[in-house]
Amino acid sequence: MPIVAAAVVPHSPVLIPGVAHQHSSFTSTTVDQLHNLAADLYAAQPEVMVFLSPHGIAYRRTMVLQAADQYQGGFTDFGDPHTIVTAAGAMGLMHRLKNSAELDHLPVVMQTFPEIDYGISVPVFHLLPPQPQLPIIPITAPCLDIDLCVRAGAILHDFFHGLKQR
After folding, report:
1. In the chain, where do the E strands start and end?
2. Does the pLDDT value for residue 144 go beyond 70?
3. pLDDT, mean of residues 129-157
4. Tens of pLDDT along 37-55?
5. What is the spatial distance between Cα 35 and Cα 152, in angstroms, rounded to a whole number?
6. Which of 18, 48, 128, 142 could bond 83 through an S-S bridge, CB–CB 3.0 to 4.6 Å?
């Protein structure tokens, strides 16, 4: 079973110290739990992390795979021009995922876009520091279409369970 962990992670920019340091007393419990989750993920030893976000580049009724060798995200729009997150991409695996989705007739596009949105940048900031070399696959899911999301979830499940990678 190659899926070694899964989590729903809060992604509010106020969880970034440079955005809302004056409110750290309100976010400290959540940040502590994100650090515990990061430790659990590190112990699970995944070889890639997949992030689903509703905030990236989206098309109606289409999943978007965001393809890049290297990703970067920041929080300038939220008042913090100094905090930058980076992560490597998993291009080969992403191409295989796109092909699998197309075989299952899931509407999917792949876009070359190295900037990750805050829905991914916040979790990357908190979850990847122990393992910064870990590649990611960012996916934008327009989950207003619940049928599409259920189908996409089933396809992602089948695809990742069919891999030898963790």
Report:
1. 49-53, 63-67, 70-75, 80-88, 108-112, 136-140
2. no
3. 81
4. 999 998 999 999 999 888 8
5. 29
6. 18
Confidence of residue 148 (pLDDT cuts 50, 70, 90): confident
Which residue type, as a one-letter code, is found at position 137? Answer: I
Containing H/E element for 147? Answer: helix 146-161
**Long-range contacts for 82-85 (Cβ within 8 Å, ≥24 apart)?**
82/18, 83/16, 83/17, 83/18, 83/19, 83/125, 85/116, 85/121, 85/124, 85/125, 85/128
- Residue 32 CA to residue 86 CA, distance in Å, equals 21
Give the pLDDT confidence of 73-102 residue by residue, as tens digits.
Answer: 999 999 999 999 999 999 999 999 999 999
Sign of CA dihedral 31, 32, 35, 40: negative
| CA–CA separation, 28 and 15 (whole Å) | 8
Confidence band (pLDDT; 50, 70, 90) for 2? Answer: confident
Select from 83, 102, 82, 99 the least CA-distant residue to 91: 99
Residue 97 CA to its chain's centroid (Å): 15
24-50: b or e for each residue (b if 16 or more CB lie within 10 Å)?
A: eeebeeebeebeebbeebbeeebebbb
